[in-house]
Amino acid sequence: MIIAIDGPAGAGKSTVARRVASELGIEYLDTGAMYRAVTFGVLSREIDPSDAESVIGVCRQLVLEISVDRVVVDGVDATSAIRGPEVTSAVSAVAATPEVRQFLVELQRAWILERGAGVVEGRDITTVVLPDADLKLFVTASPRVRAERRVAESGGDVDAVEAAIAERDRRDETRAASPLSISSEAVVIDTSEMSIDDVVADILERVQG
Question: Which of 22, 141, 145, 148 has the fewest beta carbons under 10 Å from its own?
């Protein structure tokens, strides 16, 4: 079983994907962590994230180790750092570079080929990475709800967070390389009024039904 999950930032897809993978006894891959790991490598080398040529060069040098609970970049544990504000503010620029996306898409496809099953989540999994997945899902929620969830976890001003989320959505949806979009074959799940348990149960019912 190969399950592909797309959706915007803060919709809860990572939490859902982890839970579904655990329930099914298969592995989980957070492709967003891969882009964040590359961004961490770029910033640690003091390279401008918008300098595409230099960013591509970093991809060729990086040694990435990404598991469910740990991200190691060039031997450095970057698990917490890739979720920090510095990486968060720069990851869209790195992810917009077509060659970076091509490089990581190849790694993501190799990951699923090695295992033959898994839950893979990100922004272009159903449309680009795994268009032949057994189940394709688009997990979303309103920008306001996503902002409220993020503030509940990390603090901050909900209006400012909502504005940042809306801008991230705009960048993801309008980038030239693999923009965030809904596959015509994807099941859309709006989590705005749903708990994580409800969403997981919904997906498991679709898998098992």
Answer: 22
